[in-house]
Amino acid sequence: MIMKREGFVMKAVVLMMMTTFEVIACSHCEKVESQSQKQVRVNPVKEGPQDPVIRGYAHNLPLIIDPDKEDEYLAERKDTINVYDVVEQMPRFPGGFQKMNEFIEENMQYPKKCAEKGVYGRVVITFVVERSGKLSNIRVVKSVHPALDKEALRIVKLMPRWIPGEQNGVTVRVKYIIPIPFSVKKMEEVLTV
Question: What is the mean pLDDT of each run of 10 residues along the chain (193 residues)?
Fold first, then answer.
């Protein structure tokens, strides 16, 4: 609860039981935690552009956000959930597309049983490039053979962190699709060894 009087935000104490509820406080707040409860004390500050702003309530307690950082906070919260298909700056493998192809070629271990049966083709993999550059939600979109699918997944999981995508200058999560080619040439190399 926040009370205003004579241009000041009066000292208020918000008590709550430890729950999954998150209190966002401005830079003028000090947080005190105990085992059974959490307190957020709002110290008196002069009114002006830096006053805390209430942006909703949860469990009858205010969500307090520093107005100078409100846009950043909302962008961060939104973009941890959203996964984009296309963004202004798409994510990329460190070194570019050519380096990614070299990485795939160097790390590919063509399954011997597929080579003996003459199985080849292109496995298509999809994944999400996270804001940190890590790859997540890696899965097969187009399958050729279970052994080739497994090898394609292994290669993608070995990849280093990517350079993440950006939208409006903010790093965001982006869905990406790549083909992993299992060529006849690679198959023949396995058979001649």
Answer: 43 34 41 42 46 55 58 54 91 96 94 91 96 94 96 97 94 95 86 77
Backbone angles phi, psi at 173, to 5 degrees: -85, 135
Residue 146: partners with Cβ closer than 8 Å, 6 or more residues away: none
The token duo for 52 is 């805390």
Helix or strand run (H / E) with residue 13: strand 12-17
Q: In this structure, what are the phi and psi dihedrals at residue 10, rounded to the nearest 5 degrees? A: -70, 150
Tell me which residue of 27, 81, 25, 30 sits closest to 54, measured CA to CA: 25
What is the bridge-based pairing of β-strands 121-129 and 135-142?
antiparallel
Helix (H/G/I), strand (E/B), else coil: 82: coil
Do 89 and 172 contact (CB within 8 A), yes or no? no
Query: According to the model, what pLDDT value does residue 163 have?
Result: 96
Helix H or strand E segment including 6: none
Return d(Cα 19, Cα 130) in angstroms, integer: 28
Say how far apart CA 23 and CA 166 lie, in whole Å.
28
Report the pLDDT value the prediction gives residue 192, as an integer from 0 to 100.
Answer: 81
The rounded radius of gyration (Å) of the Cα atoms in the chain is 26
Question: Quick one: CA dihedral 62, 66, 67, 71, positive or negative?
Answer: negative
pTM over 0.85: no
Laid out side by side, the sheet with 29-33 consists of 12-17, 37-42, 29-33
Alpha carbon 44 to its chain's center: 37
